[in-house]
TrEMBL record:
Source species, domain of life: Eukaryota
UniProt record similarity statement: Belongs to the oxygen-dependent FAD-linked oxidoreductase family.
Sample GO molecular function, one term: oxidoreductase activity
Pfam families in UniProt: BBE, FAD_binding_4
Record protein name field: FAD binding domain-containing protein
Keyword annotations from UniProtKB, A to Z: Oxidoreductase, Signal
Keyword Signal: yes
Coiled coil regions, renumbered to chain: none
Length: 590
């Protein structure tokens, strides 16, 4: 589903009903279902900042503070006390939000409206309903300078507000939105600069690129290609995902990861605003613990990154392939099984593969990417796969492309297909190692089949990335789960959700992602893990699933740099004992 860029049109409704004087409470006590909690401050609480305080913050950030207005409001009769319905603007909103880059440039619109509680989706049939904020923040600072970010961090720490960092809004796992919060939007930090010889601490003397917090993958890919000589950077598939935010802080895989590792493996330095509001450098020499944690240890956990410096590498020729198998044939599942069983062969050649299939549509592998392989080397890896399909009478269509550079392959095979906008789905998934595939392929494929066949009426999709960063970079010292050194298949379960749902319906759907689909995958390969950025946000034993043996150190670093928990994102280091309870309030168990 889609939404649009909502022009604010003077609709900045006054959502702040703060009391006239601010009261500084250390915590807000609350009892819910017999459990005692200490909560952050929310609109309506006595500790919520007064209008005067918000105005003062607005001055500090040069007028860049906005009261959040959900872009879907023009489809509804009312938002707050304002009449908002406008048929033309609603149509435009609904159309615009199919486009990824238009979601990104909205101050706060999420890609996955399920996590805004679906209270203001731009739909054609809601004109007699009232739009509410749901789980969107109350205010957002459209930060232009480091000082604006520092002001936002200090204000939320002092006033005990929930703080949300919003870069592009892509996060599948609800982590760039939050009920009642103050958000800091980093999208305008768009500087990019290259050097051919990095001179900072550490051994690396190759090229590097320094990017502001808001830089998107497409921007750095374009500029890298314009350098002399041309270079490449490890980035993801989607043109509008950010580099410095959740992507690199959660690890960050991409089509070049099979030869150059994860984005986090390529990090050389971060600039970061800490929980105390200081702007510090983190690299191999300065604050090395923070540097270690920011490289893969979890988004919105250790600070607000304002800039990141990453390695660049030489451009390389690349081969790509698209292959489709329709489900209208007896051996459809056999084809899926053959593919899955051969994922270790693909990653051992440094390849990256995106695939997706449904129970009754087609198995679409689009694309296979073989960076720096010649056509002959590519054929040597792929022919055994094609021959196995043929000898099982599986019919398929395919198309092979040879590109002189990775950049032209990316433009031809990824860029357009990946600029999708809002989608009403939930995410689950699993990281299967080469060993998992070798020992448990049949069990894993049976789990896929059981997931797609679970009777719930929804058209679920199983997809994934076949990639092993450990092939390119076998040894690293960073926060990324050690499991990533031996991955064959990073699998995703994409579950559609109805727009209209009761609270119980929402919980049942989330429960199925974790306890039915997730359980099937965990049981099929008990040693598998999960990816922080593309997995189930309610993952069971998420500490271990996302970070493995690195977790205890990440927790110590969180405790050191953010003892008061100014930063919070679900299922990230140091959030044990915290819960989003009742109507979305973020609270800590007492
Ligand atoms: C279409 C699509 C394609 C994708 N492709 C890939 C892929 O190829 N490879 C891959 O690894 N992942 C991929 N992802 C997942 C992606 O890595 C995550 O969604 C990631 O969280 C996006 O980060 P963001 O900063 O762009 O997004 P946001 O949603 O804005 O932020 C994500 C998280 O990072 C935090 N954050 C943002 N900026 C900062 C900052 N400056 N400092 C601290 N915390 C910050 C946010 O608070 C939030 O918790 C894809 C996602 C989508 C939707
Ligand atoms: C912040 O100030 C700007 C410029 O004066 C104004 O347009 C905006 O509405 C203010 N924000 C809030 C939340 O009052
Ligand atoms: C809104 O309209 C729908 C039909 O479009 C109807 O079913 C529903 O009862 C209406 N709700 C209200 C509150 O009028
Ligand atoms: C979230 O949605 C549920 C209905 O699914 C509703 O009962 C609840 O009040 C909503 N909460 C907020 C904050 O929007
Ligand atoms: C690409 O392959 C060539 C020749 O096989 C090799 O010399 C070069 O180091 C490779 N480059 C990368 C980045 O792997
Ligand atoms: C493939 O089809 C041929 C001819 O119809 C048949 O002899 C053979 O047994 C089939 N093989 C498989 C694996 O189904
Ligand atoms: C494979 O399927 C996709 C999606 O339907 C389509 O865009 C593409 O053209 C197909 N390619 C081949 C080679 O069959
Ligand atoms: C959850 O899964 C059960 C069976 O495992 C199914 O009966 C039910 O319809 C599913 N519910 C949802 C909301 O997906
Ligand atoms: C409105 O349309 C959406 C999407 O088509 C649908 O899911 C929802 O149930 C509809 N709601 C009403 C009130 O008809």
């Amino acid at each position: 589903m889609e939404f649009s860029i909502l022009l604010l049109l003077g609709l900045l409704a006054s959502c702040a009903h703060g009391s006239s004087s601010d009261r500084q409470d250390d915590y807000r006590p609350l009892t819910f279902k017999g459990q005692r909690y200490s909560c952050k401050c929310y609109n309506g609480d006595r500790c919520w900042p007064s209008k005067k305080s918000w105005d003062a913050l607005n001055k500090t950030v040069n007028g860049n503070l906005q009261a959040v207005v959900p872009r879907g409001n023009v489809c509804y009769e009312k938002f707050g006390t304002q009449s908002t319905y406008n048929a033309d603007q609603c149509t435009k909103a609904t159309e615009d939000l199919t486009v990824g880059v238009k979601v990104v440039t909205d101050p706060i619109a999420p890609f996955w409206p399920f996590y805004s509680n679906n209270t203001c989706d731009p739909l054609p049939n809601v004109s007699n309903k009232t739009c509410t904020l749901g789980y969107l923040p109350e205010y957002v600072i459209l930060a232009k300078t480091v000082a604006h970010i520092q002001a936002g961090v200090k204000f939320s720490a002092k006033k005990n507000l929930r703080l949300v960092i919003r870069n592009t809004g892509h996060d599948f796992m609800s982590r760039s939105t939050g009920f009642g919060a103050l958000a800091i939007n980093t999208h305008d930090f768009d500087s990019i600069s290259f050097t051919t010889k990095y001179k900072g601490p550490g051994a690396w003397r190759g090229g590097a690129v320094t990017m502001g917090a808001g830089v998107m993958i497409k921007d750095v890919y374009n500029q890298a290609y314009a350098q002399t000589p041309k270079v490449v950077v490890v980035g993801g598939e989607c043109p509008t995902v950010g580099m410095a935010g959740g992507y690199i802080q959660g690890g960050g895989h991409g089509p070049l990861s099979g030869i150059h590792g994860l984005a986090a493996d390529n990090a050389l330095e971060f600039q970061v605003v800490t929980a105390e509001g200081n702007h510090v450098t983190a690299n191999a020499k300065k604050n090395p613990d923070l540097f270690w944690a920011l490289a893969g240890g979890g988004p919105a956990t250790f600070g607000v990154v304002t800039r990141v410096t990453m390695k660049t590498h030489s451009e390389i020729p690349s081969v790509g392939m698209i292959l489709n198998i329709t489900s209208q044939q007896t051996n459809y599942w056999k084809g899926i099984s053959i593919f899955n069983s051969m994922t270790p062969n693909f990653v051992d050649a440094g390849m990256y593969v995106w695939y997706a299939f449904t129970a009754t549509g087609q198995f679409n592998i689009q694309p296979f990417v073989a960076p720096n392989l010649s056509r002959a080397q590519f054929d040597a890896v792929i022919n055994p796969f094609l021959n196995a399909l043929r000898s099982n009478n599986i019919t398929f269509t395919h198309d092979i492309q040879e590109h002189a550079t990775f950049y032209t392959l990316y433009q031809a095979m990824f860029a357009k297909a990946n600029d999708r906008g809002m989608s009403q789905t939930l995410m689950g998934g699993r990281l299967f190692t080469r060993d998992d595939i070798k020992t448990s392929n049949d069990a894993i494929v049976s789990a896929f089949k059981a997931i797609l066949e679970n009777p719930d009426g929804g058209r679920k999709v199983i997809g994934g990335h076949v990639v092993n960063p450990g092939h390119g970079v076998p040894n690293v010292n960073n926060g990324v789960s050690p499991l990533w050194r031996n991955v064959a298949s990073h699998n995703l379960v994409i579950v559609p959700a109805p727009f209209e749902n009761t609270w119980e319906g929402r919980k049942e759907l989330e429960g199925n992602v974790t306890n039915v689909y997730g359980k099937l995958l965990r049981d099929a390969a008990p040693k598998s893990g999960s990816y922080v950025n593309e997995g189930d946000v309610n993952e069971v034993d998420w500490q271990h699933a996302f970070w493995g043996s690195n977790y205890p150190r990440l927790l110590r670093i969180k405790e050191k740099w953010d003892p008061k928990r100014v930063f919070y994102a679900r299922s990230t280091p140091g959030t044990e004992g915290w819960a989003e309870i009742n109507d979305g309030r973020l609270c800590r168990k007492r």
